[in-house]
Design a protein that fits this description.
The chain has about 800 residues and is mainly beta. It has 3 helices and 63 strands. The strands form 14 sheets. Strands 1, 3, 4, 6, 9 and 11 form a 6-stranded antiparallel sheet that branches.
């Protein structure tokens, strides 16, 4: 067993105007020192309940080893109060991001337990676990609040705090992984694993049928698990949390409305207790960290936007405002949203990046805010990043409980590629299937690559896409899109062009395809319609719109999903998007996206006019331009009856780049894969060539270039003892189409004898003629001789 004592490295009282810090950091837990190393929190002597706080921060949880098993921990604080503190004031153990005082993560201690002389108090940790505590890291704080309605001035002296941890440790073992296969990597190369924990190895290839995976020299190939990461479209969001004050001051005259941290999304319960308001005509700048550092490195960012709920305190002063903008460092990614142009009522606005951020910029993404006197409030915000990832195919190998060191090695299999045995009395054909962003199966078995099927067989292939966009469907190069039987979900919508109770609506313009408001020139009016969705799966709906109206006075408004907009001119709350003058008053087509869940849902769309000037088109025009399922729910089926030739099936889904790999063989033998396949850029590919006669010669060209010298020939025996020679040819990091032409030459040898129930192929046949054994140049001719004796080897 081991013990460790964790102490805070810093304090913060930046949220309290009336806190006095007397002697440096309150970071020492000291039983006797009552004169130094303490912080004092002093309340204001007034009759209004006011809360002030000290935060003890910076506990270094890294001092506890990662392989520790924590058996106990306790939190202590040494302090005392004066006699003026009001009964009911608390110490609380809380999760805090410097100033987030509202997220209580453990039990409180009432002020009646705090003495007026220095003493030590143990804070009960309740249901708080060590793993939870450690996960907070630098954001964990002990928070000491002080509040009073007394006319006297209460205070608390804090001498320090500590967390005592008792733990034991287990040994660790190294797990290493290497690959000797060109173009195929395994990861991680090395990892330290605590005894009893699991270790996972990732093998980045779509096929290991011709490879061997060993763990401490034991073949574990069959334990590798195949995975298909479907890729496609994704959305990640980040709710605002900690802010950083860049410049200015919130503590000047008129600045007391500054009351805490915004830590909830735009659609959270809105209050006036969590907002920022300026003071004394001083503009303050503050930023929220909304870093997106978990998006994979192979992602393509498609859009970034924020939904911000807030309001302006005043719209009368030209230089006094609340503005928000998306930035990465000093780089401006969006226009600045000025709440002054929106009004003094809470509303949710969308800020869209005009410059799509890079992955590097996402790691430093911020919501940048400027605040002036009577500036306004931000009640909450959520930042969204939409991105796509390509499909990937890989294997994993997992060691469930590590109790020793492990050396995992991926290598090419030794010996020839040996296909499954076939009955020589029957005829077989190749069925080759390849796909992108889809899984293909026959019955319950996932099937890719080349399988050999008996003549006359029927086969129904099930194609389950991860991306709903069907790009390509081929059978031997022939388009079979119309022959696919679709079991994909149905997603439809209708438009109620004039909502009940509304005086105006949005009739369809059959020429442009836009639904267009018809209250042009009508003062104090509103046109309202409803879009009714009936979806069997969640979909990303894109709406194109043109809002070219009088700036600042006439607005297009789109409701929340299942939200309702009023049928009159009066203002609406809870809008999903309002076309504000600064960003939406333009003749250009703009877009808005909704993620509509499966089921029946609605949105209202409204064009609201005031009583003044009519400008520009004086209307709102909109139409739905795309409906894309967010998941690949559903499937297709393709059936081939009475197979009498080889088939190469290709299925591609999504807007992706791909290359064809075509393989054609002449002569007696089999190739795997046989025919045409489709691959993504960067993929690897291997073909195996198995002549019928193991003594045959094989030559090959790739896009017209002779690559025979690059063939890897190996000879061995199959399960029936037949001699087999196979040739391998590999491509890695494919960046172009390839046409492979294979020629198999040499004498044919297709004589089989059934031995102990198995067909055995022989390459040499002899016939006894006139008492002498004569080798037959054509082994098949022996079936037509009148010889009394036949022998073979």
């Amino acid at each position: 067993m081991a013990n460790i004592r964790l102490i805070p490295s810093a304090y913060s009282s930046s949220n309290s105007s009336y806190a006095t810090v007397y002697s440096g950091e309150a970071n020492m837990y000291n039983n006797t020192d009552h004169t130094s190393n303490y912080a004092s929190l002093r309340g204001r002597n007034n009759s209004t309940t006011t809360a002030y706080y000290i935060f003890l921060r910076g506990f270094n949880f890294d001092d506890v080893p990662s392989n520790a098993t924590v058996t106990s921990f306790e939190v202590k604080i040494r302090c005392y109060k004066n006699s003026y503190q009001r009964t009911g004031d608390n110490y609380r153990l809380r999760l805090a991001s410097t100033t987030n005082i509202n997220n209580v993560i453990a039990n409180s201690i009432t002020s009646t337990e705090i003495s007026t002389t220095a003493n030590t108090i143990t804070i009960p940790t309740g249901d708080l676990t060590w793993s939870t505590l450690k996960s907070y890291g630098d954001n964990f704080s002990i928070v000491i609040p002080l509040s009073s309605t007394s006319s006297s001035r209460p205070y608390i002296y804090v001498y320090g705090a500590e967390i005592n941890v008792t733990y034991s440790t287990l040994p660790t073992y190294e797990v290493t992984a290497t690959s000797s296969v060109a173009g195929v990597t395994v990861s991680p190369a090395s990892q330290e694993v605590v005894q009893g924990d699991s270790a996972e190895i990732i093998i980045n290839t779509s096929d290991i049928s011709d490879y061997v995976l060993t763990d401490n020299n034991t073949d574990v190939t069959s334990s590798a698990v195949y995975h298909h990461d479907t890729g496609g479209s994704h959305t990640e969001d980040n709710v605002l949390g900690t802010y950083t004050l860049v410049s200015g001051s919130f503590n000047g005259s008129g600045g007391t409305y500054f009351q805490g941290i915004v830590g909830k999304g735009y659609d959270g319960t809105q209050t006036t207790s969590n907002y920022y308001s300026g003071g004394n005509r001083t503009i303050a700048v503050f930023t929220y960290d909304v870093s997106f550092d978990n998006i994979p490195s192979n992602a393509t960012i498609t859009s970034c936007y924020a939904r911000v709920n807030g309001h302006a305190e005043s719209t009368s002063q030209s230089s006094e405002y609340m503005c928000a903008q998306i930035r990465s460092g000093s780089t401006e990614l969006s226009s600045e949203l000025n709440f002054k142009s929106i009004g003094t009522s809470n509303s949710t606005q969308t800020i869209t990046c005009t410059t799509t951020p890079t992955l590097a910029q996402l790691a430093n993404l911020q919501l940048y805010c400027r605040l002036g006197y009577y500036g306004g409030a931000i009640n909450g915000a959520t930042v969204y990043v939409e991105y796509t990832t390509p499909a990937s195919y890989y294997y994993t190998y997992t060691i469930a409980s590590v109790t020793t060191t492990h050396t995992v090695v991926l290598s090419e299999s030794s010996g020839p590629y040996i296909p499954d045995p076939e009955d020589p009395t029957k005829t077989y054909y190749s069925l080759t299937i390849s796909s992108i962003n889809a899984e293909t199966s026959i019955g319950s078995e996932v099937v890719t690559g080349t399988t050999r099927v008996e003549e006359g067989t029927d086969a129904t292939i099930t194609i389950t896409p991860s991306d709903p966009l069907l790009t390509l469907a081929l059978d031997n190069g022939v388009d079979i899109t119309n022959q696919l039987v679709s079991h994909m979900p149905t997603n439809t919508y209708t438009v109620t062009t004039q909502k009940s109770g509304a005086s105006y609506g949005f009739p369809l313009n059959s020429t442009t395809g836009y639904y267009t408001s018809n209250n042009n020139g009508q003062s104090n009016s509103a046109a309202v319609c409803t879009v009714n969705f009936n979806f069997e799966t969640s979909c990303l709906v894109t709406i194109s719109y043109i809002n070219y109206a009088e700036a600042t006075y006439d607005y297009g408004i789109f409701s929340q999903i299942d939200g309702s907009l009023g049928t009159t001119y009066t203002a609406d709350s809870g809008a999903y998007h309002t076309c504000s003058a600064s960003s939406d008053n333009t003749s250009a087509v703009q877009t808005l996206t909704y993620t509509i869940p499966a089921g029946t849902h609605t949105i209202d769309i409204k064009y609201r006019k005031d009583q003044a000037t009519n400008s520009n088109n004086d209307n709102l025009q909109w139409k739905i331009t795309s409906i894309e399922p967010t998941t690949g729910a559903g499937y297709y089926e393709y059936t081939i009856n009475d197979i009498d030739a080889k088939h190469s099936l290709i299925f591609v889904f999504g807007d992706v780049t791909y290359y064809f790999i075509t393989s054609v063989a002449a002569g007696e033998g089999r190739i795997f894969p046989d025919g045409q396949q489709v691959v993504l850029p960067g993929d690897n590919y291997r073909i195996n060539i198995v002549p019928d006669n193991y003594q045959a010669t094989v030559t090959m060209t790739d896009n017209g270039t002779n690559v025979t010298s690059q063939l890897d020939a190996e000879t061995g025996q199959d399960k029936q003892g037949n001699t087999v020679t196979s040739y391998k040819y590999s491509l890695s990091n494919i960046q172009a189409a390839h046409n492979l032409v294979i020629s198999i030459g040499g004498a044919s040898a297709k004589i089989y004898l059934k031995v102990n129930g198995s067909w055995v192929q022989y390459s040499k046949v002899y016939v006894k003629i006139n008492g002498s054994w004569v080798e037959q140049a054509d082994p098949n001719s022996v079936l037509n001789t009148q010889a009394n004796y036949v022998k073979a080897n």
